[in-house]
């Protein structure tokens, strides 16, 4: 069987197929984003008989029903949604939905005398040469004869015959040709993705989550549109609560659903720690509920695939939609979500920038939901999720092939009667003495400021409620919450003036510390020996000039919590390499101590 077929159809036939549900627009996480001028240009191209590109559909496989009969799959529109929506807006007069979920019309006007299109505006509304809204012309009840008489009486420059000719050409847009590439249901998700990327001229990449959302959206029988909206609305509300009013005003059916009542809490919730996208939500719900890691498998299951017989069966579709819906509702559950955020905070995660790996967060939430489903003790859940999150960041467990690792790990957590055993097994294998004493120290030898290892150090400082470098009462957490910056223990300008000119030298993460701005300004470009000498003077009773610490024990404690060796008092540029080596060891010791206490 061929991977695809290429056919031509007309605008009229295509819009009819969509009305009848033969071709389904999946609303793949993409509200209408075209500018009105682009809609105008599309109509102009069709009017002038210019090609407007292909649309791509993907056939849902035929599924065998319980009685043995066959249910024929719909064709899903996977590329061309913006063009089809533009045609529906301009020709059929339908409202479009913006990314804020407000509804509005895009009205295209037409000047039959000059044969030009324009987006409707107040000037056009006052100009008798324009048809203000072309959707009126495409209406089945449009009175062509009456319109020609009326228009020509106001515009004697155009004859009845000429106007009739132009109108017929305009109405003929309905019969303009559009190419359709129909992808076979036998294609796997990876092949469909590759085909899409190769022939999509706009350069928009669809992910496997997009295709999964397509499958969800078009299945009316098993609440697909409801599931899609719950996913979509939750992810938008958590980032922009302002869309709540638009949902209320523009989607009354959804507002009356039980799902809406389960997500509306998020409009009043403010977190910048974990703001999942629809892809994240899908991945978490699928991983914990199906004990699988590959989203391509979700696409297959939603199509009814039996992995053993390679057939497609209706009962698998029904079961998969039920499980996914339950997984989505568990994800958006207020108690679950807020408890997970509290676990993250208890591990020192107070900002989304601290954990750069979204995959690590996603798996941690999937693990949390799985353990709750297994009725594991709440205190044990907190400990397991905290330790696993930090261990997965330490080992960069989900940075290479996250789906394979998701699949591997979730199955083993589900398998173990005591899930903590699996954590211990991974610790023994991957967090050995060699890891802490060699690998971790080597990992800290980097100038990449977004390094997960420096962020783990910061998490340990937040966990311990440490003060910032040379601060008496301002904590690292407070600086981060107030958007404080990291600064150099060996000042950058000082190092540059002493021959350390490359970023890889002066921007070593072992040279970074969270420092109050006033402290950093007081240090300026001094050597550590010089500015620590000033700190010593204030300890001996002289006036404060760098920070507020005036007690030797407090100073030593501050150096210890910031992993600064006490030899800093005598250090100059020649000691920089030794300082980095010492501090890396101290940072590793602190992170290890932090991990063991989680």
Topology:
Layout: E1 4-10, H1 11-20, E2 23-24, H2 36-47, E3 54-59, E4 63-64, E5 70-71, E6 75-79, H3 81-91, E7 96-97, E8 103-104, E9 108-111, E10 116-119, H4 122-125, H5 135-138, H6 144-154, H7 160-171, E11 177-183, H8 189-199, H9 208-217, H10 224-239, H11 243-250, H12 252-255, H13 258-263, H14 278-290, H15 295-302, H16 314-332, H17 334-346, H18 358-373, H19 378-394, H20 402-415, H21 420-430, H22 433-443, H23 452-463, H24 476-481, E12 486-488, H25 492-496, H26 503-506, E13 512-514, H27 517-523, H28 528-539, H29 552-561, H30 576-597
Parallel strand pairs: 2-6, 3-11
Antiparallel strand pairs: 1-11, 3-6, 4-5, 7-8, 9-10, 12-13
Helix pairs in contact: 2-3, 6-7, 9-10, 9-15, 10-16, 14-16, 14-18, 17-19, 18-19, 18-20, 22-30, 23-30
What's the story with the biggest beta sheet? Answer: 5 strands, mixed
The overall average pLDDT, rounded, is 91
**Approximately what portion of the residues adopt beta-strand conformation?**
5-15%
Strand order of the largest sheet: 1-11-3-6-2
Radius of gyration: 31 Å
Question: What general outline do the C-alpha atoms trace?
Answer: globular
SSE class: alpha+beta
* Count, helices: 30
The tally of beta strands, per DSSP, is 13
Distance between the termini: 56 Å
Low-confidence stretches: none
Determine the fraction of residues in helical runs and give it as a percent range.
40-55%
The domain count comes to 3
Protein name: GmrSD restriction endonucleases N-terminal domain-containing protein
Domain GmrSD restriction endonucleases N-terminal: 14-215
Pfam family, one: GmrSD_N
InterPro entries: GmrSD_N
């Amino acid at each position: 069987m061929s991977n695809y077929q290429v056919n031509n159809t007309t605008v009229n036939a295509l819009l009819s197929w969509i009305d009848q549900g033969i071709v389904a627009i999946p609303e793949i996480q993409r509200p209408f984003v075209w500018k009105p001028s682009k809609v105008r240009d599309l109509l102009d191209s069709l009017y002038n008989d210019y090609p407007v590109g292909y649309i791509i559909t993907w056939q849902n496989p035929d599924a065998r029903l319980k009685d043995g009969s066959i249910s024929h799959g719909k064709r899903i529109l996977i590329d061309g949604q913006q063009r089809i929506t533009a045609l529906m807006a301009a020709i059929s007069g339908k409202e479009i939905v913006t990314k804020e979920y407000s509804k509005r019309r895009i009205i295209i006007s037409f000047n039959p005398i000059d044969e030009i299109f324009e987006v409707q505006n107040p000037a056009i509304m006052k100009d008798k040469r324009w048809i203000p809204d072309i959707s009126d012309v495409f209406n089945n009840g449009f009175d062509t004869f009456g319109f020609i008489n009326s228009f020509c009486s106001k515009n004697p420059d155009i004859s009845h015959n000429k106007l009739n000719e132009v109108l017929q050409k305009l109405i003929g847009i309905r019969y303009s040709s559009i190419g359709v590439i129909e992808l076979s249901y036998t294609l796997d998700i990876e092949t469909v993705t590759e085909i899409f990327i190769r022939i999509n001229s706009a350069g928009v990449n669809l992910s496997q989550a997009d295709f999964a959302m397509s499958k969800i959206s078009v299945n009316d029988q098993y609440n697909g549109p409801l599931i899609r909206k719950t996913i979509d609305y939750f992810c938008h509300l958590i980032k922009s609560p302002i869309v709540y009013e638009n949902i209320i005003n523009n989607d009354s059916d959804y507002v009356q659903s039980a799902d809406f009542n389960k997500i509306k809490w998020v409009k009043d919730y403010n977190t910048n720690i974990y703001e999942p996208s629809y892809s994240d939500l899908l991945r978490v719900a699928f991983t914990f509920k199906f004990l699988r890691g590959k989203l391509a498998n979700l696409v297959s299951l939603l199509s009814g695939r039996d992995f053993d017989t390679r057939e497609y069966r209706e009962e698998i579709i029904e079961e998969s939609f039920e499980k996914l819906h339950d997984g989505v509702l568990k994800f958006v559950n207020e108690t679950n979500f807020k408890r997970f955020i509290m676990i993250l905070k208890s591990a020192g995660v107070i900002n989304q920038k601290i954990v750069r790996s979204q995959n690590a967060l996603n798996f941690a939430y999937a693990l949390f939901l799985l353990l709750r489903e297994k009725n594991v003790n709440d205190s044990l859940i907190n400990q397991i999720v905290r330790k696993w999150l930090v261990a997965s960041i330490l080992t960069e467990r989900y940075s290479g092939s996250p789906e394979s690792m998701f699949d591997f790990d979730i199955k083993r957590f589900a398998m173990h009667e005591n899930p903590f055993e699996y954590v211990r097994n991974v610790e023994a294998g991957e967090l050995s003495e060699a890891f802490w004493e060699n690998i971790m120290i080597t990992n800290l030898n980097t100038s990449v400021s977004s390094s997960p290892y420096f962020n783990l150090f910061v998490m340990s400082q937040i966990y311990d409620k440490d003060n910032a470098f040379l601060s008496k009462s301002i904590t690292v957490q407070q600086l981060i919450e107030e958007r404080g910056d990291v600064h150099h223990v060996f000042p950058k300008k000082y190092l540059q003036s002493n021959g350390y000119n490359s970023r890889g030298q002066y921007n070593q993460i072992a040279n970074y510390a969270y420092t109050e701005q006033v402290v950093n300004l007081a240090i300026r470009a001094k050597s550590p020996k010089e500015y620590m000498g000033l700190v010593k003077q204030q300890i001996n009773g002289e006036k404060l000039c760098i920070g507020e610490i005036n007690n030797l024990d407090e100073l030593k404690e501050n150096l210890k919590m910031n992993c600064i060796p006490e030899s800093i008092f005598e250090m100059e540029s020649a000691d920089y390499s030794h300082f980095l080596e010492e501090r890396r060891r101290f940072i590793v010791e602190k992170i290890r101590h932090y991990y063991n206490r989680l």
